[in-house]
Amino acid sequence: MAYFSSLLAQFGIFVILATSLNLINGLTGMFCLGHAGLWAIGAYVGSAFSVFVWPSLQIDFPLLQLACSCVVAMIASGAVAFIVGVACLRLKGDYLAIATLGLGEIVKVLLTNWELVGGPRGFTGIPPISSAAVILPVAFLCLVLLLNVRYSSFGRALMSIREDELASNSLGISTTKMKIVVFVLGSSLAGLAGPLYAHEQQFLHPENFNFMASVLILLQVILGGMGSFTGSVLGVLFLLILPEVLKSLGPEIAQWRMVLYSLLLIVLMLLRPQGILGKKELGGTW
Amino acid sequence: MTDIFQYFLNGLSQGSIYALVALGYTMVYGVIRLINFAHGEFFMIGAFTGLFCLEAGFSLLLTFPIAMIVSGATAVLVEKIVYRPIRKTGNIPSLITALGASLFFQYSGQSLLGARPRAFPQVFRSESLDFKFFSLTSLQLVLFSMCFILMLGLWLFVRYTKIGKAMRATSFNREAAELMGINTDNIISLTFFIGASLAGAAGVLIGMYYNSIDPLMGVLPGLKAFTAAVLGGIGIIPGAMLGGFILGISENLVTGLLSSSYRDAVAFFILILLLLIRPNGILGKQRKEKV
To answer: The pTM is what?
Structure first.
């Protein structure tokens, strides 16, 4: 049961991360490879708030504590994203990818060197106030929010930036402003996932947020279909269940599960590069 | 002052490793506009091939070519089986496939060889050579001259041979090159081979330098070499060398003057700064966007 609920919690966390990355990557077409870094900022800042600041307020109400730490985390990730966004978003394609990749690595190194939150030993003693019961509704709200963004005039503007930035600029869309707003919004959602994750795991380590974590989130987005939020949910489901199924097939196979998993990924790209849903949403417009 | 000069020298030998790996990134990007994320893994494959050769009792002179051929051949296989079919579907699917290939090599390496680091045999007795202002180990000297020879060889090859000319033509404009009778598919395979064999040589050199290798050793040097390639201007061969040296030197300066724990961050920090000032890299030309 505990295993099942931790799996559900993980599912919710990655739904938030994948859909928020899809907003940046899929809907707006900005190739970002540092999503785990922004997630890490949220997780560490939110947990630091909850461990060091909250006790001095002397309010015994765990859900409010979690909510406050989430708000702090969102502000922190959003602020970092704003600074980085203003500087980097005029870069395009591969260059934006490498700049955001660099951001993720820098965050990881800074966290490893931050002694207050454990540095290389990891951050322990985070109160266990988050669980699947909180995470799943938040993930659902996040999905609804992003679907609403997609079908708003703002969302259409974002898609026009993805299709042709120059053309959408000439049609009167302030592309730079839009891109910064999207980057900050997507990043603060990644920040939101931070404390939810931290207070469920009760332990954080900088290595949890390495480049591979960013890649995993990206793969979930791409598997489900770039630009399809419900697709991202499917992508998360697929990439979460697959290793578990393989694990249950026996230790022999479990040892090779990550290999099989990467092979499956390559095969899927060869057979269906647009992902499971492409740009469509499950359930159509609403 | 002498310290700084010493860091500079250490950086030069480390930078030459980055440069060797960065060359592969930049060459592949030059011909097919793909960030080949699996490139760091070819570096790892070269190191392990070197380990097995040396453990089997081969001499160092034989080990280098074998490691280079094995990682080059692996790269050609990956290119033919995986990258070629997906090339036409566009940028993002190719990038994802490259990430998949990278993961595949990392995890099959871990499953086959175990995750623990392995000791690299000490085949080369390194002596410290003391000069008036600085000291060098003879290993550093070998490392640097080896990298220099390989890079010079590559430069001569690309510049003065017919195949090199075909490579440049392919990277300049693939369709036009095809119309001129160049078999671009073969040229692309060859590019993968050369790039990966340089990375394989770099893998053996890193094994000799640090005496320890593991299946995930390619990840961070791979990323750094890629940033080195971008730093110099991706797709430009001298740019990759320049980027590698700049990265190696600045890393060592930061390690020496500040703290070793910030080393990895500073490499990326410099990159972001440079991208903001000169997004096309140091040697890159500014491209005008056409509508």
So the answer is: 0.83
